[in-house]
Amino acid sequence: MALARLLTAVERGDGQAVESAFALPVDQSGQVVGVTGSPGAGKSTLIDAVVATLRAVDERVGVLAVDPSSPYSGGALLGDRIRMMRHVGDHGVFIRSLANRGHLGGLSVAMPSAVRAVGACGFTTVLIETVGVGQAEVEVVRQADTTVVVTTPGMGDAVQSGKAGVLEIANVLVVNKADREGATETARDLRDMLRWAPTPAGGWRVPVVTTRADTGEGVEELVEVVRSHRSHLEDSGELARGRAARSVAEFHAYARARVLDRLDRSLAADTGRALTEAVADGTLTPAAAADRLVAGDGRPQG
Ligand SMILES: Nc1nc2c(ncn2[C@@H]2O[C@H](COP(=O)(O)OP(=O)(O)OP(=O)(O)O)[C@@H](O)[C@H]2O)c(=O)[nH]1
Ligand SMILES: [Mg+2]
Q1: How far is CA 278 from the centre of its chain?
Q2: What's the CA-to-centroid distance between 34 and ligand 2, angstroms?
Q3: Whole-angstrom Cα distance, residue 216 to residue 176?
Q4: What letter would DSSP give residue 199?
Q5: Span 131-188, pLDDT tens digits
Q6: Could you read off the pLDDT of 183-217 as tens digits, one per residue?
Q7: Where are the beta strands (DSSP E) in 38-122?
Q8: Best of 36, 38, 44, 45 for a ligand 1 pocket test (most atoms within 8 Å of beta carbon)
C-alpha cells in the first residue's frame, strides 16, 4: 500500500518522501485525536473500541502509535497489534506504529508528516496513541486537535498524571476500567481537581468520561465528547489557530533538524576536522572554534 511505504520513508527521515508528504493537501475537515496516559491504562483497547464505533457509522479512521521499541516509551507493541486485530483487512482502517529511528529530528519531524499523510489519504479521524510518561510523548500529542488523557481508578494514577503535566494537556479525561473499584470516586476527584483549574482561553471545561474499554461501555459518550470538542475548537477559531501554530512548530522542527544535519556534515568535513584538531592541541578555544565553524570560516588559526 502506498501510504504504508510513504510512512516507512517518513519514519526514516527520507527527505524526498517527507517533501511529498509535506505537499499533500491538508484536509481541514478531519480531527486528529491524541490518546495518552499511563502504561496499561487501556489506551489501545479504548482506541480499538472508538475505531469500532466510528466504523459503525462508516467513518474512515487512521491509528498511529508511537512504537514502544523507541527510547520514548516502554509498552507492548505486539499487544497493541493483537488488540486491534479485528480491524485488519478493513480498508476503512489504517493502523501503523511509528518508531523513532534516531534520525535527526526524530518523531517531532516524522509524526506531523505521518499525520498529514494519513489524513490526506481520506482517514478523516486520526488517533495517535502514546504513553504519557515523558516530555517527548507530550510533544507528540501536541500534534492533535484534541487530547484525551486516559487514567484508571485510584487517585495515585490521577495524581501521577497531574505531576507529569499530563492533566494540563487534557481536553477530555477518561477514567477507564470502570469495572474496577473506585472508578466513581476517581471521576469525582478529577472533576473536583478540574474545578480549581483556571478556565482555558476558549472556555472549554474538560469533561470526565467513565469507560470500560474492554466491553465498549461509555465509548459512545467518549466519541460524542471528542466530537463536541472539535465543534468547540471550530466555533472559537481555535482549530485554525492551533493548526497554524503546529505548522509553524513543524517548520521549526524541520529547520532545526536540517541545521543539525548540516552541522554534522561540516564537523566531519576538512574544515571541521581542522578545527577539532586545533581545539584538541590547545591552539583554539572551543567557543572560538564553534564560532568559526558556524561562520563557515574554517581557518583554525589567526
Ligand atoms: N478490567 C478492565 N480491563 C481493561 C479495560 N480496558 C482495558 N483493559 C485491559 O488492560 C490491559 C491493558 O490494556 P491496553 O489497551 O493494552 O493498555 P495501553 O494503555 O494501550 O497499554 P500500553 O500501550 O502498554 O501503555 C489489557 O489487558 C486490557 O484488556 C477495562 O475497561 N476494564
Ligand atoms: Mg497500547
Answers
A1: 43
A2: 13
A3: 10
A4: P
A5: 766 666 666 677 899 999 999 998 565 555 555 566 778 899 999 999 999 999 999 9
A6: 999 999 889 888 887 776 678 999 999 999 999 99
A7: 61-66, 93-98
A8: 45
Protein residue with least CA distance to atom 30, ligand 1: 177
Residues 6+ apart with CB under 8 A from 23: none
- For residue 43, the CA-to-ligand 2 centroid distance in Å is 5
pTM of the predicted model, to two decimals?
0.83
Q: Does residue 43 line the site of ligand 1, with CB under 6 A?
A: yes
Ligand 1: does its nearest atom lie under 6 Å from the Cβ of 40? yes
Q: How far is CA 298 from CA 260, 267, 268, 280, in A?
A: 18, 10, 12, 15
Ligand 1 within 6 A of CB of 13 = no
DSSP 3-state of 64? strand
- Averaged pLDDT score across all residues of the chain: 82
